[in-house]
Amino acid sequence: xxxxxxxxxxEYLAWRRALGYRLSRYDGLIGQFLDYLGxxxxxxxxxxxxxxxxxxxxxxRARWHTARLAAIRGFAAHVHAHCxxxxxxxxxxxVPSRVDHAVPYLYTPTQLTGLITHARTLRPEVRGLTLxxxxxxxxxxxxxxxxxxxxxxxxxxxxxxxxxVTGKYGKQRxxxxxxxxxxxxxxxxxxxxxxxGSPHDQALxxxxxxxxxLAGNIQHGxxxxxxxxxxxxxxxxxxxxxxxxxxxxxxxxLVEAHRAGVDVDAQIAALATYLGHVSPTSTYWxxxxxxxxxxxxxxxxxxxxxxxxx
Length: 310
Prior knowledge:
Blueprint: H1 5-18, H2 26-39, H3 47-54, H4 62-82, H5 109-119, H6 125-141, H7 145-149, E1 156-157, E2 162-166, E3 172-176, H8 179-196, H9 215-228, H10 244-259, H11 264-275, H12 280-284, H13 291-309
Antiparallel strand pairs: 1-2, 2-3
């Protein structure tokens, strides 16, 4: 007797989550796929229908199609293990996908200083102060905008020179920071509270209403700021983005490591942990993000090759 696929889906998701997987989108994706099968009057999972559903809608990227098919592949394998007639095994690689990274805008120290200085002139005063602090914090630590806005006053430990950050998937990490960073945040807390009072939820960064800022509002303010400062377009004619402060921090860290002769693999492993990357693979991408960094890597490779030849 063929299994009820919806019951199988509940069992499959419960089993995977018991193993520690989060699968935040899988409930919806598998449910949508089963709805699709119902519309096709199908009661089993076939490669043909899984692929057709995964590629819907047609105007979305192949990367999204790959993610949709991956959700069904694991589910189909689960069903197949219990009843081979109810589901085909879906091969990998049916939807070729390549991750296209946006070319990062790498800020110079002069540009960063100009952005922070100009932000402090904005009104109301707390708006400019908060935007300037976000820019300085992201440039100094490489944290994501969501991580910065989620910080509480208790996240900062000036005595220990650390910031407790909650990153993707709720993972927490403790960032050691320079004393100038903790001093700037301590000064921000004192000034912002004098302007708007204390927020109800212990937010470190605040708006004029003493509430936690929204990422969209910060990004909008940052775009307006880069245009006011007349920053030139970057490589590929790309506009400067708020997230590129994180890229700039990562690239500068690796440039400094190369100049100091630090082992790049060890530095990337440490940087991956600091940035909250799930895998160091994401961090290795920064090696290609800067012409200066590429030149340093090439110089080291050439020196190593000549040393061998000698």
